[in-house]
Specification:
With 293 residues, the protein is mainly beta. The protein folds into 3 domains: 119 residues; 76 residues, Immunoglobulins (Immunoglobulin-like, Sandwich); 81 residues, Immunoglobulin-like (Sandwich), CATH 2.60.40. Strands 1, 2, 3, 4, 5, 6, 7 and 8 form an 8-stranded antiparallel sheet that branches. The longest helix has 5 residues. The protein starts with a strand and ends with a strand. About 5% of the residues have low confidence.
Length: 293
C-alpha cells in the first residue's frame, strides 16, 4: 500500500516500476499497486484467439492495477523490465476503462486504474465515401496523415484520435475541376503506417479566400490562402495607389507568402496604401494593404 504525502518514492511489482514525485498523492489518500493476475478478453482478444482478426491489439502481459482510481497531482513515470517481458517498438502500455483501451504514449500515468501491456501491429485503415476520407485506428490511435498531390504535401496531425474524417474539397481546395491522383499516408502512435492512392475529382473549387495581415504593417505582411497550396500557377502582384507595379512574385506551391515591404529593386516601400492582385490558375483575387511605420 502507498500512503499519500510521501517524499519522492520508487515502487515496483513484477516487471513494472513506478516513480512518484513528492506529494503526487494527497496526505489522506492511499493507493494499492500490484500485478493483475487476470484480464477479461471481451474487448481485446489474446493472440491465440480465433477472433483475433477483429482486434488491433494483442495482449502481451496482463499488466498491473493501481487502486482506487485517483487522479495524481503530478505524472507518475513507468518503467518496464524488458528482461522479464519481451517488448518491441510496436508494444506499449494501455489504460483500460469503460471505453476500451487508451495508449499511454510517454509511459506517464496521470491517474490510477488498470493497465496492460499490448502490441499494436495493425496500421490505420482508410475508407472513402464520395470525396470524404475516414481514417480509423482502434489500437494506439492516430498520429499523422499526409495527403500528396501535384508534387505537394498537406500534413494533418490528429494525434490521439481514433477516428478522423477528411473532407477533400475543404482541405485541398483545388482550383481546377479535373482528375487528381491523391496519395494518402497514415501512421499511428506506435509506428504502424499505411499508404493508399485514390483518384479524386473536386466537387467544388477552392474559393481562394485571401487573408493579408497585419493591418497596418510595419515590418512585413503575410498573405495566406489554403487555396494556393495545390494551384498549378499562382502569381502575386502589388501596386501603389497610382497603379504602378512595385512587386511581383511567383507563389506557386505556397499556402502563405511573407512580403518584407520592399519593392522589386530591394528598396523599402513608403508608408501608405497598396493593392495586391493574386492570379491563381486564371482566377483573380485582389485586396488592400496598409504600411505604417
Amino acid at each position: 500500500m502507498i500512503k499519500g504525502g510521501f517524499e519522492p518514492l520508487y515502487v515496483s511489482s513484477g516487471p513494472y516500476s513506478l516513480t512518484f514525485a513528492k506529494n503526487t498523492l494527497e496526505k489522506d489518500s492511499h493507493l494499492i499497486f500490484n500485478e493483475n493476475n487476470n484480464i477479461e478478453n471481451t474487448i481485446i482478444r489474446k493472440a491465440d484467439s480465433k477472433d483475433n482478426s477483429k482486434s488491433e491489439l494483442e495482449i502481451i502481459d496482463s499488466g498491473f492495477i493501481l487502486w482506487p482510481s485517483l487522479e495524481f497531482n503530478s505524472p507518475v513515470n513507468l518503467k518496464i523490465d524488458t528482461s522479464e517481458i519481451h517488448t518491441d517498438s510496436k508494444t506499449g502500455i494501455f489504460r483500460k476503462d469503460e471505453n476500451g483501451y487508451t495508449f499511454l504514449a510517454n509511459n506517464k500515468l496521470d491517474k490510477a486504474g488498470r493497465f496492460v501491456l499490448a502490441a499494436d501491429r495493425k496500421a490505420p485503415s482508410v475508407n472513402r465515401v464520395a470525396n470524404k476520407i475516414n481514417v480509423t485506428d482502434n489500437g494506439s490511435a492516430l498520429k499523422q496523415i499526409s495527403l500528396k498531390a501535384e508534387g505537394k504535401i498537406y500534413n494533418l496531425y490528429p494525434i490521439g484520435k481514433k477516428d478522423f474524417e477528411i473532407d477533400l474539397d475543404k482541405i485541398l481546395r483545388f482550383t481546377q475541376k479535373r482528375e487528381y491522383d491523391i496519395t494518402i499516408d497514415t501512421s499511428d502512435r506506435l509506428g504502424n503506417s499505411n499508404r493508399s492512392t485514390i483518384k479524386y475529382i473536386p466537387t467544388s473549387i477552392g474559393d481562394l479566400r485571401i487573408l493579408a495581415y497585419p493591418v497596418p504593417a510595419s515590418d512585413y505582411i503575410t498573405i495566406k490562402s489554403d487555396g494556393l497550396l495545390f494551384a498549378s500557377k499562382a502569381l502575386l502582384k502589388i501596386y501603389d495607389v497610382s497603379g504602378r507595379l512595385i512587386f511581383r512574385q511567383d507563389i506557386t506551391g505556397f499556402s502563405e507568402f511573407i512580403w518584407d515591404l520592399v519593392d522589386r529593386r530591394g528598396r523599402r516601400v513608403a508608408n501608405g496604401v497598396y493593392f495586391y492582385k493574386i492570379d491563381v490558375d486564371g482566377v483573380e483575387r485582389e485586396g488592400k494593404l496598409v504600411v505604417l511605420r
